[in-house]
Write a structure and sequence with these properties.
Blueprint lengths: L4 E10 L2 E11 L4 E5 L6 H8 L7 E9 L2 E2 L5 H7 L4 E4 L3 H4 L6 H10 L6 H14 L5 H4 L9 H13 L5 E5 L7 H18 L2 E6 L2 H7 L2 E6 L2 E7 H6 L4 H8 L4 E2 L7 E2 L2
Helix pairs in contact: 4-5, 5-7, 7-8
């Protein structure tokens, strides 16, 4: 099976600082790859580079191939045809990702109409269906509410709805539960797992929390200082870590358990 996404020898600089140093990763269709590392490890910068969302001051070298097509160097118009429609992203802080002075329903319908030709009425119905799919209560009534009228967990669900409204083949979830309390975090993770299985979307899931990544991913890549230190199947990385940094991350995980559905599931 050909890789859906292939990152090869990726280097990223901001001025003289090299923040990503030769990263290589692959992602297969329908696979969930967990990218784990502390703040500043380069995982979020790598994610943003995939969608061409780095600032103009960044210098990028290497290769990012999407279904065999090189993304680095694409013109903005070409990149927009991929971004959102084929590859979507859920950011970690919904209050900065959502426009605070625009009604939530309008934000979702604008995202739909940016990529698809349909009437405003059809876009509204699809937006309401997307909100219902992520379990927003009374979605049709709340279509015209503003972001501040939703809880933190609901705002994150809205971002997930916006990301999945085009049924992308890849969802990049960049620390999507960092700002949430433990109970809401578990609910959002369960929602992502359910939607991933239902739609068969591949996922690149980044987090500083190995416990969370262990719940989500089938394969894990560990990053530190712009380098990928270790990559492997979830069970192998969690039970037979090869790098001292991975061992230190595991030492911070409070509880591990084994069950039938997941060979090794990390308790939240």
């Amino acid at each position: 099976m050909a890789a859906l996404l292939e990152i090869s020898d990726l280097h990223i600089w901001f001025g003289a600082a090299e923040v990503v140093r030769g990263v290589s990763l692959t992602l297969e269709p329908g696979e969930v790859l967990g990218l784990v590392g502390e703040s500043g490890s380069g995982k979020s910068v790598t994610s943003l580079a995939i969608l061409g969302l780095l600032s103009p001051s960044a210098r990028v070298e290497g290769s990012i191939r999407w279904k065999g097509r090189e993304l680095l160097g694409l013109r903005d118009a070409e990149m927009r045809s991929v971004r959102g429609r084929e590859i979507a992203m859920v950011f970690q802080e919904p209050m900065t990702a959502l426009n605070p002075v625009m009604r939530v329903g309008k934000q979702i319908t604008e995202a739909i109409l940016a990529h698809e030709r349909m009437s405003g009425r059809e876009a509204k119905q699809r937006a309401i269906a997307a909100l219902e799919a992520v379990a927003i209560p009374e979605a049709a009534r709340r279509f015209d509410d503003y972001p501040h009228q939703f809880s933190g967990g609901q705002r994150q669900r809205i971002l997930i709805a916006m990301a999945l409204v085009h049924r992308p083949q890849l969802l990049i979830a960049d620390e999507p539960t960092t700002a949430l309390d433990v109970t809401v975090q578990a609910q959002v993770l369960e929602l992502l797992q359910t939607l991933q299985r239902e739609f068969g979307v591949a996922m690149l899931f980044t987090s500083h929390d190995l416990a969370v990544v262990g719940e989500m991913a089938g394969r894990i890549a560990v990053m530190r200082g712009g380098l990928v230190l270790e990559t492997g199947a979830c069970l192998d990385v969690l039970t037979k870590p090869q790098h001292a940094y991975t061992m230190s991350l595991l030492a911070a995980v409070p509880t591990l358990r084994t069950d039938r559905e997941k060979p090794l599931a990390v308790l939240l």
